Amino acid sequence: MVNLWEKSVQVMKEGQERNGAFPASPAFVTYRYSWLRDGTFTAYALDVAGEHVAAANFYRWVHGVVRHYLFKVEDLVVRRREGKALEAGMFLHTRYTVEGDEGTEEWGNHQLDGYGAYLWGVAEHLRLSGDVVFLEEVRGSVEGVIRYLVEFWGERCFDCWEEFGDRVHTSTLAAVYGGLRGISRYVVVDGVQEVLAEIKGFVERECVVEGRFCKSVGDERVDANLLWVTVPFGMFDGEDERVVATVREIERELVTVGGGGVHRYRGDSFYGGGAWVLLTAWLGWYYAAVGNEERARELVEWVERQADEEGYLPEQVAEGLMVPDAYGEWVGRWGECARPLLWSHAMYVVVRRALRG
Fold first, then answer.
1. By the 8 A CB rule, do 287 and 300 touch?
2. Distance in Å from the first CA to the final CA of the chain
3. Which of 296, 323, 325, 339 has its CA 20 to 30 A from that of 270?
C-alpha cells in the first residue's frame, strides 16, 4: 500500500523543474505553467515536510521572474498618478511558463492573490527553515511585490479560479492581507498597519452577507476559497462568528451529501463542478486549526480515498457534480481531469502535518 505522505512529497519534488518552477501538473499539458499561488502552497508543503532546499529554489525562481517584470509596476504607478485608465493586461501575470515567460492564452492572468501568497510563502519559509539570510536573495522581488500590493490591493482582478475578472474577491483580499502581514515580520513596510486595517475594514463592510463572508463584492454566494480569511492568512480568527457561519454554509452548500468532498461554489461548471481534493484538505486544515480533529480526519480520509493505485491525487473528482452536462464538454476539450495535481498533494501534506500524523 502506498504511503500517501511519502508519495506526495516525492510527487512534488519530482515535479519541480531544475530551475525551481513547479508546473501545476507535470502530466497535464494544459497545466504546464507555474502559478505563483499553486507553487507557493507546494513550496510551503515542502517546507512543512522539512524539504527547505526545494522550497527555496521555487522562491528563487519566482524572484527572477518577478524582477524581470517589475517595470510593469512602475508603469502602473505612473499611470495611476497621471489619472490614466488601468487595464487588466497591464498588470503582472500570476502564471508563467516554466522558463519564466508570460502565458499567451486568454485566461485570467491578472490575479493579485498569487502575489499575496508569494509574500506569505517567503515569510513562512524564513520561519520554518530558520534561514533568515535567504531574505537577502529575494529582497528585490519581495519589496517590489510589497509596493505592488500596497498600491493596487483594491483593484478588480480575476479570482484564484481565473474567473470573474470584473470583481473584488474576498479570498484575494485575504491573500494580500496575509502576505503583507506575514512579510512585515521580516521587512520594514512603511504604513503596513494602516493598509492592513484598510483591507480588513473593507472586507468587513463589503464582503459580509447575513453574518458570513461572501465570494466577492456583489456576489453573495459562498466559495470554499473563503477559508483563506482564516487559514492560512489569518485575517480573522477561526472561531470568529462570521468564519464559523461561513464554514457552516460551506458544509451545507458545497460538501457532497454523505460527508464527501468539497466543491468550489454553487453553479461551478468546470469539469461539471466536481469535488476538489485540495479544498477538502483545506477544510480539514481549518478543522484541525480550531480543534475539531474528528471532522478533520474524516476529510483527510476522503482525500486518501481519491488516490489511484500509484498514489497520485487528481484536481477534482466527478462526485456530486454541480453541472453534470458540462463534464463531458471539458473532457472532450482537455482530456480527463489533471492527475497528479501538485497543489492537491501539497494540501494533503499540510493537513496531515496539522494533525501531526
1. no
2. 17
3. 296
The CATH number linked to 110 is 1.50.10.10
Domain boundaries, position 208? 4-253
pLDDT at 316: 97
pTM for this prediction: 0.98
315 is an active site residue: yes
Selecting among 159, 219, 223, 268, the annotated active-site residue is 159
> Which one from 162, 163, 240, 293 is the annotated catalytic residue?
162
The string of DSSP letters for 246-284 reads HHHHHHHHHBPTTT-PBPSBTT--GGGT-EEHHHHHHHH
Whether 54 is covered by a domain: the verdict is: yes
User: In this structure, is residue 225 part of a structural domain?
Assistant: yes
Separation CA 229–CA 235 (nearest Å): 5
In this model, does residue 106 exceed pLDDT 90? Answer: no
Q: Which residues contact 100 (CB under 8 A, 6 or more apart)?
A: 19, 21, 61, 64, 65, 68
- When divided into structural domains, the chain yields a total of 1
308 catalytic? Reply is no
* Residue 195, pLDDT score: 98
What span, in angstroms and rounded, lies between the C-alpha atoms of 347 and 251? 19
